[in-house]
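Shift notes (night). Ran NADPH-dependent FMN reductase while the centrifuge was going.
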Amino acid sequence: MSQTRLLALVGSLRAGSFNRQLAEAAAQTAPEGVQVDIFEGLGDIPFYNEDIDVPGQEPAQATALRDAVNAADGLLLFVPEYNGTIPAALKNAIDWASRPFGAGSIKEKPIAVISASISQNAAKWSHGDTVKAAGIAGGSVVESAHLHFGTIGQRFAEAHPREDAEALTQLAAAVRELVEVVAERVNA
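Came back to this:
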């Protein structure tokens, strides 16, 4: 198999967010032959609106997202929890990638959902909502590649997740599991 491309979408727009740091650490754990790119600009994509989703006239940021999702072999969704649910920026990205419905760039794309929050709940509500939204949008959610990180404000307060051996091991396992599903689909 040639180079496997995974695309990470980070639900937190804050530059120094722990979810972004987890995405960076996941990219670091990618095995040889696997490239993990973090999509930049989720916050620049307008809210999904069919009135502006006109073929040939889509907003450039939405087209860039669709192209990046289409070019990826699989997706890593990094999900914080905002008021008990999925952040608007990530939900919006899923909405854009799902259109046209049934044929969007997310269709049948293997997806791993990694949630993290400052609470002990580990963003499990947001995680569940993300799994639901991605699945309904047409993605193929890989449950065996899911991760939950709780109390990240304490756990990663002093050090980046790339310096946490346990976090790296867990992220590497999730990436590996997602890559295995991608390989199974390519070889099917």
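The chain has a mean pLDDT of 93. DSSP finds six helices and six strands in the chain.
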